[in-house]
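hey so i finally got around to running the thing on that chain from the lab meeting. sorry it took forever, my laptop kept dying and i had to restart like 3 times. anyway pasting the input first so we r on the same page abt which one it is
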Amino acid sequence: MTVIYVDADACPVKSEISTLAIRHGVRAMMVCNGGIRPDPHPLIDLAIVDDGPDAADIWIAERAGAGDIVVTNDIPLAARCLENKADVIRPDGSLITTANIGAVLATRDLMADIRASDPLSTGHQPRGKPFSKQDRGHFLQQMDQMLSRRTS
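ok and heres what got predicted. didnt touch it at all, straight out
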């Protein structure tokens, strides 16, 4: 049975995931370092992991497998989950697949190198684009389609 694993600490679509999981009758596992209230619905679980580096990522990667869905913006976590045959979706609704993970990892590494090589940097990194209503809508559409394929 499909489980939705959510890298929940900074996930902007937790409530949408809960709604879709309940609608489709699948379990959702919110994984975090703390600070998130448990959902009373029996299909929505909360796993609180240690504060160590990447503790939530490690927890998810050890459990997510074929037929599961992982919601994350963390690219290394996405790569590990894809290796385990899980599907990966970002909170903005974009899919990370075996076909595009190489390019996504390369872009991530390139941007890290550019930031690290800037001798004039003041330590302030530019932020990505803000999360929008369109991102939320795209996520809902993609996730609903993924779940519909699994539960129909």
